[in-house]
Amino acid sequence: MLSKLPLLHFDGNYPEGRWHSHWQMDPQILLLGFVLIAGYLALIGPINERYPGHESRTATRKQIWCFLSGVIIMVLVLGPPFHDWADYFLLSAHMAQHLVLMLLVAPLLLLGLPVWFFDPITNRPWLDRIGGFVFQPVVSFAAGNFIMVLWHLPPLYNAALYNDYLHGLQHMSFLVSGILVWWTIIAPNPRWHKATPLVAGLLLFANTIPGAAVGAVITLANSGVYEFYNDAPRLWNFSLRDDQELAGAMMWMIVPFAYLAVLTVIFLRYAAREEAKDLATPAKRREVPSAPVPPAEHPGV
Question: What is the pLDDT of residue 301?
Fold first, then answer.
């Protein structure tokens, strides 16, 4: 079946440049990065200023840097040399790309979005209802992890490596997966479900399970679970088995570590807030009222 797919993504010309890379950036990736950055800066600047009340619609320096950093990291990880290592030689390099998109790029993009970005959507009831449904904690958790697991199934994973269009869709799907999973934790639009610390902790813990399971299966499976890499030249004497085990171990260990690290931060912040509340509230003295003293009895004369 795979042999019948058009070889738009791989034509057999292995990179022969320095560090085993063609050192050619995909124009589509550059265009995507440019459109995202230019569109973002236009929206928080000139476009925003055309409408009344723009003084209250601002983006903080932190938000701007988060969004720009997310786009730049995305362009870098999908460009050379990572692009060539992942697309021609190493499953582990391909897995690293996916992890960066899900665990780093997606949350950075969300952290860069001001709440007012969503006003044009939430002001339309039918779009607001769709957003409210999609980003419910259970729905976004299930959808995000379903996308992640689906693309790691060998038939789809292999097909993407043979076809440029599918490969681009795969990468964007991992980014969407990350956005869905991180949404209720970061909540750039609190109107669409901002998780309480308890719910956020439960979601983060639950998110460790699908990624760890996929990673464990890849690590423990027989060599060549993704047949595209079976005949690929081995870089740096890195065997097919070692490459697959590293790819699986990355998914098995990094995904739980990332979510548990954020869970720890949320817990510590929650504990600090509660402690601050206790210190700010003056202790109330609870005085136990003494029993009333009966009036003295005067014997009659």
Answer: 41
